């Protein structure tokens, strides 16, 4: 029977029993019946109590008849309470065990995370080790190839050493022959030297066409180029010097030339310096000794790196000139001559022997100032602009001030 049907039935049955009890009570009261010798009032109370008991009994009986669980609950309540208590205790224990298991699971998760990190690190280390192994393998293969190449080179060098040993034996034989020839040549050289010195002494009695360290020719050559280009420029310089020497009367016996290097190494040394040094260079061919007409001019090569020798406004030379004297113009020209020599000594290129230039108007102004002062005056030759060795000429300006004192 469904729950709502059972409840409806109990309500209806309770109402019917209550109604019957009420009817019985009314009849007992009207007829003033007595139960068990009691007064009617108490008889009515008994009937009402009995009716209530019947309602409860009927309800309980009906519930027991309709539901096994109700019967079990009414007659087994203590057992159910005890079992419920045990179940609660069991549930509490289960909850404690569950909490412990959850803690264990949390610890296992932490351990698992650590294990996972360790696994990832192990994988990374494995990959790194594999990469290193691959690199080492490649290096090993390269080293093997290099070793094979070196072994092949070693065999080549062994062959070359054997060849050089044979060549060394041949050279030793040649050296022995040359040493034997050297003695004869030394004797011939000594004799020729004696004759040469005798002839040179005779020729020195004539006039010099070139004095020692005189500039025979000069040129500006750009360094840092190909060796062939540099050699061409040096040969052109020597050709120009040769023409100049020949025009003055220098000669090499039996040749149409007049010039020779005092040492062959000068040429190749100059080539090496110019090849390694970038920028402009001043190259001079200078007379190595005093030379008279009829003999060759022995020259050397002198190199000057292009650099700034004067800044604009630098005083090159200064001297005191008496403006009251008649030869003040001569002294002023002598100052310019000394400036010219100073600049040439620094290495500036010159073709006609003059490197300093002063405006004619400035020269006349300086003379007029000297005459106006009519006494000792300080005359300074000053650079009119920045001046470099290979980028002449040197432009001058003259400054005249009263002499101190």
What is this structure, in a nutshell?
It contains eight helices and twelve strands. With 405 residues, it is an alpha+beta fold. Among the domains are: 3-75; 209-305; 308-402.
Description:
- The structure is a single chain.
- The chain has 405 residues and is an alpha+beta fold.
- Among the domains are: 3-75; 209-305; 308-402.
- Helix content is 63%, strand content 17%.
- It is built from eight helices and twelve strands.
- It has helices at residues 3-31, 40-66, 68-75, 77-203, 227-247, 265-276, 328-346, 360-373; strands at residues 208-210, 215-223, 259-261, 279-287, 291-292, 297-305, 308-310, 315-322, 356-358, 376-383, 387-388, 394-402.
- Strands 2-4-6-3 form a four-stranded mixed beta sheet, with helices on one face.
- The radius of gyration is 68 Å and the shape is elongated.
- The termini are far apart.
- 15% of the residues are buried.
- Mean pLDDT is 80; it is low at 189-206.
């Amino acid at each position: 029977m469904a729950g709502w049907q059972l409840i409806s039935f109990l309500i209806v049955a309770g109402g019917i029993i209550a109604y019957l009890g009420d009817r019985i009570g009314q009849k007992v009261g009207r007829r003033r019946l007595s139960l068990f010798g009691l007064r009617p009032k108490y008889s009515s109370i008994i009937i009402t109590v009995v009716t209530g008991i019947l309602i409860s009994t009927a309800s309980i009986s009906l519930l027991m008849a309709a539901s096994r669980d109700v019967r079990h609950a009414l007659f087994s309540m203590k057992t159910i309470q005890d079992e419920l208590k045990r179940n609660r205790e069991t549930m509490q224990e289960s909850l404690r065990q569950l909490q412990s298991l959850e803690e264990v699971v949390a610890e296992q998760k932490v351990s698992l995370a650590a294990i996972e990190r360790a696994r990832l690190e192990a994988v990374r280390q494995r990959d790194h080790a594999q990469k290193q192994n691959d690199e080492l393998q490649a290096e090993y293969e390269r080293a093997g190839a290099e070793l094979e190449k070196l072994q092949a080179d070693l065999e080549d060098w062994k062959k070359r050493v054997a060849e050089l040993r044979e060549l060394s034996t041949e050279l030793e034989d040649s050296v022995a022959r040359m040493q034997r020839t050297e003695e004869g040549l030394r004797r011939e050289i000594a004799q020729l030297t004696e004759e040469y010195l005798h002839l040179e002494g005779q020729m020195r009695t004539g006039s010099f066409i070139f004095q020692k360290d005189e500039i025979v020719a000069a040129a500006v050559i750009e360094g840092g180029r190909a060796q062939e280009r540099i050699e061409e420029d040096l040969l052109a310089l020597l050709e120009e010097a040769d023409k100049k020497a020949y025009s003055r009367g220098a000669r090499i016996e039996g040749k149409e030339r007049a010039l020779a290097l005092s040492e062959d190494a000068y040429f190749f040394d100059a080539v090496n310096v110019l090849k390694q040094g970038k920028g402009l260079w001043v190259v001079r061919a200078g007379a190595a000794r005093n030379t008279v007409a009829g003999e060759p001019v022995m020259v050397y090569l002198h190199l000057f790196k292009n650099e700034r020798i004067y800044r604009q406004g630098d005083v090159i030379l200064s001297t005191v000139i008496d403006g009251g004297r008649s030869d003040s113009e001569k002294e002023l020209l002598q100052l310019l001559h000394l400036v010219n020599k100073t600049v040439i000594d620094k290495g500036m290129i010159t073709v006609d022997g003059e490197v300093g230039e002063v405006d004619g108007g400035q020269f006349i102004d300086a003379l007029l100032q000297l005459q106006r002062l009519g006494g000792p005056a300080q005359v300074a030759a000053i650079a009119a602009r920045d001046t470099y060795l290979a980028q002449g000429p040197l432009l001058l300006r003259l400054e005249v001030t009263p002499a101190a004192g």
